[in-house]
Design goal:
The structure is a homodimer.
Chain A: H1 5-12, H2 16-24, H3 31-44, H4 50-57, E1 62-67, H5 73-88, E2 100-105, H6 110-122, E3 127-131, H7 138-153, E4 157-161, H8 220-227, H9 231-235, E5 243-248, H10 250-264, E6 269-273, H11 279-295, H12 297-302, E7 307-309, H13 315-328, E8 334-337, H14 340-352, E9 362-364, H15 370-373, E10 381-383, H16 386-398, E11 408-411, E12 414-416
Parallel strand pairs in A: 1-2, 1-3, 3-4, 4-5, 5-11, 6-7, 6-8, 8-9
Antiparallel strand pairs in A: 10-12
Helix pairs in contact in A: 1-2, 1-3, 5-16, 6-7, 10-11, 13-14
The structure holds a DNA duplex.
Chain lengths: ~425, ~425
DNA sequence: CTGTTAGCGCATTCAG
DNA sequence: CTGAATGCGCTAACAG
């Protein structure tokens, strides 16, 4: 039904191979032939058959981006950044060999996440980018890790963006690896120190993209031999297979934020956190607690009671969480939120209870989403360079940028002090 | 490198054909053989090669969802709904033949839109869903239409969701078609009448999905014959090729909203609209003007001056637009916004100017996004059943639901009166 | 520079 | 019910 290469070849009076060559553009073709072919392509409105092409070349131009919530700007910004890198890649005329960057919405469900990875593996995706916090259930972690390793082993580039790196073999059962210094150290100071700033790398264009790590076994026989093995025998540990990570310094950011509140004089600081099983939630909470502990053991002890976990990172969770917090600890003079969206919900709840922000209660968010700056009052928050991180993840996924040392880049978080935080009101009476 | 069907077959001691059959599940296989195969699949962690499968079967399991702004919940809700339909489809055990629903972010750019459609066509996507308003540039419309018709002709299901149907041949150069009664009639009444309510259809499961309209020419010879023709000779007009539409009653909704304001007593109603070239903007504006005209010619005449076009459907546009509006027409007692997000920006700007909502100025949005109900004040708006519309679009894209009569379903808009609108303050002096 | 020749991995006849 | 054979449309050697 659809037009094929052969049709174009016939119309241009050349062989199919020649057509293929002008379209891929990676092979010398005479100018005259070239334009003749191009014209035929145009006249016939020919569009390459992706599946056939992928089959023959053993590579596809699909890049999957997994997000936890497609309606959340946090992911929108990252995903958009990843996509923008795909386009900038090669702007050849005609049917430029652009990558098809697509986003898959897992809704935060581990099952969906796995399903999408399988689907992408089936499509032999060129790369997969997993964004946002991971769920920490051990069973799921193992399954996820397996899938990712298999993907990587099959030549799909895997990049994590905004989630911690995969645990290394030495840490089985423990916490995720922390290859840089941005993790759970004593943390006496308030400023976030990140492993590696967002440096501008020389864009290392691979001359033959996709030809680096793939196809370990070249001849058919070798391949068969490898395939006869069971998975355990095949893969090795999977380390060094090139699962890259662009991590956020959530701990450092939260620490800075809490330190800011403490410096203002707050002592009863509530925390409306995200769902407990997510890495992002845990890391931010750890940073918060670290700052409290650094200030005084007493504050640290009371932290548990002042923490409320919401069901998600949405406004509703913030609203509900704030009400619960006020019920549990009406004395709070400041509330930290899981993120900016949650913070807005917190503000709404506070206002409804007749409390002014920041006069009665200070509120702070996280992420510095676009709306935070012009909310009223403007939100004090922690800025994460979401776009830059996403762009970098995109470049790593394309192999257009050298991997960071150790495969992990931690991206700096920056405290943004705005109008929603102020010193606590002096006690009257 | 990756495991293949043949490997599984070898390990299970059967032929490749048999493995293929147990995996597709659409062919009788002995129970014993079946389980043996399944075990081999499991042991080898076999994952079907999508490209190969797609090539052989001439069909893929990719479904593309195009959105204008991935960071906008409006699209998030619709896209999420479409995706949810993909999963519910067939929950077979093992590697269930789920569709890979994937969202592509055009950023509202016509060029990107076309690029993505080409990419999806290249992948031989099973279906494509275009969501949200279209850009009305004639050149782009023509190009877009061409692409869609070719997609449809190639067997890809095309569904429009939240945008008007493709113009019919009789209307070349004119407005998009309006097959139902919800368009630009005199509009004397305030209530939105939609073409067809969101009825619950009997879910018509096609026994052999994908086997309906495709493969018009069965034998190789027939196909060659067809392909030898030029596109113009090939496609026909493209009408009846099954480009389905789930349209929103933007006009009716806007009319109802403006009527509500007029009924409250407002006479100076400002409008912070979206970008002028988008269908959604135009339709909502038309509904607004229709309601003004229905009330009195005088109001209609002044409408132009009270309309400000923003650069997008985001908060910033609302903020800027409101400031511009106040500069141009400080007498406004009510402001309509392009959508809820814009409305929030409008509120922020008004507050900053010292105007209270709704005491000094009433504000209303559009769409009824989740945050609108618990904004402060709660936003008066027009509810569009985004999730239902997306779900329906998903079912249509899968061929799981009978197409609406005429290929177009218009979805009702419902006025939601909340706290952000009130009667205008009586003039003092 | 260009044509010819083999597959890529799978679905699907057609025989058994 | 199962196996062998064929071809989907394209790319990648390998000759010319």
């Amino acid at each position: 039904m659809a037009v094929t290469l052969a049709d174009v070849a016939a119309r241009a009076g050349v062989s199919a191979a020649t057509v293929s060559r002008v379209l891929s553009g990676n092979y010398p073709v005479a100018g005259a032939t070239r334009s003749r072919v191009l014209r035929a392509v145009d006249e016939l409105e020919y569009v390459v058959n992706g599946p056939a092409s992928a089959l023959a070349a053993a590579s596809s131009d699909l890049v999957g981006i997994l997000v936890n919530d497609i309606a959340d700007p946090f992911f929108g910004i990252i995903a958009g950044a990843v996509q923008s890198e795909m386009n900038g890649a090669e702007g050849g005329p005609g049917a430029g060999p652009r990558k098809l960057a697509v986003v898959c919405n897992t809704g935060g469900s581990p099952g969906q996440e796995l399903t999408y990875l399988t689907l992408l593996q089936r499509q032999r995706a060129a790369a997969v980018v997993l964004t946002g916090g991971a769920v920490e259930d051990p069973e799921h972690s193992a399954a996820l890790e397996g899938r990712l390793r298999r993907l990587a082993a099959d030549g799909t580039r895997v990049v994590l963006c905004g989630r911690p790196p995969l645990r290394t073999p030495g840490e089985r059962g423990g916490r995720p690896g922390k290859p840089d210094g941005a993790s759970g150290e004593p943390a006496g100071e308030a400023v976030a120190e990140a492993g590696e700033p967002v440096r501008v790398w020389d864009t290392v264009r691979a001359e033959e993209p996709g030809a680096e790590g793939r196809r370990q076994a070249r001849t058919p026989l070798e391949r068969r031999a490898v395939r006869a093995l069971l998975p355990e025998q095949r893969g090795g540990s999977g380390e060094g297979l090139g699962i890259l990570t662009v991590a956020f310094d959530n701990r450092g950011g939260a620490r800075a934020l809490t330190a800011h509140l403490l410096a203002l004089g707050h002592r009863a600081v509530g925390y409306v956190a995200g769902p407990p099983e997510r890495t992002t939630t845990r890391h931010r909470l750890e940073g918060h607690r670290a700052a409290l502990a650094a200030h005084s053991p007493g504050l640290s002890a009371g932290a548990e009671r002042l923490t409320v976990h919401g069901g998600g990172y949405d406004r509703g969770s913030g609203y509900d969480g704030a009400l619960e917090l006020l019920r549990r600890a009406p004395e709070v003079t400041a509330v930290l939120a899981a993120n900016d969206t949650v913070a807005l919900g917190v503000c709404a709840a506070l206002r409804e209870r007749g409390l002014r922000v920041p006069e009665d209660v200070s509120v702070a968010g996280f992420d510095d989403l676009p709306f935070s700056a012009d909310a009223s009052p403007a939100l004090t928050t922690v800025r994460l360079p979401l776009y830059e991180a996403g762009a970098r993840a995109g470049r790593l996924a394309l192999g257009r940028q050298a991997p960071p040392p150790g495969g992990v880049a931690t991206v700096r978080a920056e405290l943004m002090v705005r109008a929603s935080t102020a010193p606590p009101r002096p006690r009257t009476g």
